[in-house]
Amino acid sequence: MIIMKAKFTYVGIRVTNLQKSIDFYTKLLGMQVTGKGKIEQTKGETVSLQSEKDSFVLELNYYEEGSPYNTKYSVGEGLDHLAFKVEDFDKTLEETRRAGYRTLLKMKAGGGRWAYIEDPDGIWIEVF
Amino acid sequence: MIIMKAKFTYVGIRVTNLQKSIDFYTKLLGMQVTGKGKIEQTKGETVSLQSEKDSFVLELNYYEEGSPYNTKYSVGEGLDHLAFKVEDFDKTLEETRRAGYRTLLKMKAGGGRWAYIEDPDGIWIEVF
After folding, report:
1. pLDDT tens digits, B96-122
2. C-alpha distances in angstroms, A39 versus A44, A99, A126?
3. Sign of torsion, CA B62 B54 A32 A99?
4. Taking a C-beta distance cutoff of 8 angstroms, is the pair B50, B56 a contact?
């Protein structure tokens, strides 16, 4: 066994509208809100989401007007994509379209299929 | 129990130099390389990293020259930060400095301490 000195615990994405993002990740991707917080120093709000109990956390980071972190928003290249394993690939894409979100790209290789959809801020979400 | 239709499985970040990023995440943050792949369609390479067996995956995405995804790189605001829980906070910061990486911000609130360091592409890494 290797002694790990650090454990990768969560990923924080920045969102520009908390409610729109909560809706996307809970209603479309079935996550649950498992925590909320306010950080005075940054004038920020956080919402934690999980697919299952004890599973990896997706943290939504919202910065209110007047926060030094409420800067101009572009998704950028740092975050390539967030990936979700889905039970029914075709149904997921159908529900995505019905809910009004864009499908950006469909891929097929080696017996597997995956597609990219766009979250409310334009972050690429891979479903596979 | 709620039936989850999707499971948040990994986060992919884009990197501009695979070896530099592998060094950062394995040597400084103690992750292990658990997978490698090439995707012909995107002219891309992926490296999967994990802190522990069966834990959440950080995927490094590298696009070679000539790939349509080898676009100009700026970290952007989509990815706010990646967070790692560390055993020894002070030691981690000391090792970070010694390894030549920048500490961007130190925070203290409610009995907790956390800090942000920069990965080789400028992605903010929270250690707490």
Report:
1. 999 999 898 898 888 889 999 999 999
2. 5, 32, 30
3. positive
4. yes
Cβ contact B79–A11 (<8 Å): yes
Q: Where do the structural domains in chain A lie, given as residue ranges?
A: 6-127
Interface touch B11/A11, C-beta < 8 Å: yes
The model's pLDDT over B43-100, given as tens digits with 9 standing for 90+, comes to 999 999 999 988 899 999 999 999 999 999 999 999 999 999 999 899 999 999 999 9
Q: What is the CATH number of domain A6-127?
A: 3.10.180.10
Cα separation, B30 vs B36, whole angstroms: 18
Q: What is the ipTM of this complex?
A: 0.89
Beta pairing class for A32-39 and A44-50: antiparallel
The contacts of residue B36 (CB under 8 Å, 6+ apart) are B45, B46, B47, B48
Chain centre distance of CA B71: 20
- Size of the A and B interface in Cβ pairs below 8 Å: 177
pTM given for the model: 0.91
- A92 chain-B contacts, CB cut-off 8 A: 5-6
Residue ranges of E strands in B64-100: 79-86
